[in-house]
Amino acid sequence: MSADAREFELIRQLFVRQIAARSDVVLGIGDDAAITRVPPDHELLTATDSLVAGTHFLDEDDPASVGHRCLAINLSDLAAMGATPLWASLAIHMPEADEDWLKTFADGFFSLADRFGVQLIGGDTVRGPLALTVTVQGIVPTGQAVRRAGASAGDLLYLTGYPGSAAFGRLHQDSELASCFFFPEPRLSIGQELRGLASAMIDISDGVDSDLGHLLHASQVGATLDIEDLPVIHAAHAKLGGESVSELVLFGGEDYELCFSVPPAREPGLIQRAESWTVPLTRLGVINDMPALQWRKGGKIFSVPDKTFEHFSDS
Ligand SMILES: [Mg+2]
């Protein structure tokens, strides 16, 4: 075995360690491809996302955070479809095998994977600039995945949690809110509970304005919403004042909360279900049939400034 091969064998060993093997994995890591079993009457959902050093994280970031985030951002995409995650694969690009970094990275990755019963079933290690690519797969009962398209005029718009917290935590070194950026929590159980309730759904990776805009565009509808109705991040409000906090909520990405629409008849069901959630739920307003997203401030149309937090955006 060459030095190069030995180095990458070491990486492989670090990732073939997950204890809880799923019964739906017929063949995991070690062959040319994994074999998995999808239960009858379910559809398979697949999502892929990458984190690149210098773009999505800094070289000095805690490797446990990078391990957590590269999986979390993918699980959040499954959450936004109402899916149950099952399997993941991971491609690591590294300039050279850094055992300490990889061990801590793997701890971050697997502690999240184990919590949601996700098994790593494959991957690759390549020499190159530091970057991670994760593919996750999950299932929903046939026909029940919640898409971005599906919202109608009259549906109510809702948002979980406090988007903007991650950007605030990262920018202002706020120790409590920084964990929203470094260790975001994918809203998987909420996403699954919204199957049959939400008419459309998306996760907030790039900020409420941008991602809600995607949902409305896909559904060919619009909304005129009041900035005053956005959830208030109290820590940020105390430090920055109202104006800047609204900008954080609208344009600060990396929170991975869920934004969704619910037909009015299903609102009581939503309220009832949300009582058991540990994450707050905010009603943003009502969808209309004018295909645009507008924000109102003090009752007047607010023109959206240039995106202040573009460097946090993911796409
Ligand atoms: Mg997404």
Task: Walk me through what this model shows.
- The protein has 315 residues and is α+β, with helices and mostly antiparallel strands.
- 33% of the residues lie in helices and 26% in strands.
- It has ten helices and 13 strands.
- The chain has helices at 3-15, 63-79, 99-115, 165-171, 175-182, 188-193, 208-219, 234-240, 242-251, 267-274, and strands at 25-27, 35-36, 42-52, 84-94, 119-127, 131-141, 156-160, 200-203, 222-226, 258-262, 281-288, 293-297, 300-302.
- Strands 8-10-7-11-9-12-13 form a seven-stranded mixed sheet, sandwiched between helices. A four-stranded mixed sheet has the order 3-6-4-5. A two-stranded antiparallel sheet has the order 1-2.
- Helix 2 runs parallel beside helix 3 (99-115).
- The chain is globular and about 70 Å long.
- The site of magnesium ion has 4 residues, from loops.
Bound molecules: magnesium ion
Number of strands: 13
Q: Identify the overall geometry.
A: globular
The chain-level mean pLDDT equals 91
The main pleated sheet reads as: 7 strands, mixed
Rg (CA only) = 20 Å
Distance between the termini: 39 Å
**Helix content class:** 25-40%
Essential attributes:
four-stranded mixed sheet; disordered C terminus; 315 residues; 33% helix; alpha+beta; binds magnesium ion; 13 strands
Structural topology:
Elements: H1 3-15, E1 25-27, E2 35-36, E3 42-52, H2 63-79, E4 84-94, H3 99-115, E5 119-127, E6 131-141, E7 156-160, H4 165-171, H5 175-182, H6 188-193, E8 200-203, H7 208-219, E9 222-226, H8 234-240, H9 242-251, E10 258-262, H10 267-274, E11 281-288, E12 293-297, E13 300-302
Parallel strand pairs: 4-5, 9-12
Antiparallel strand pairs: 1-2, 3-6, 4-6, 7-10, 7-11, 8-10, 9-11, 12-13
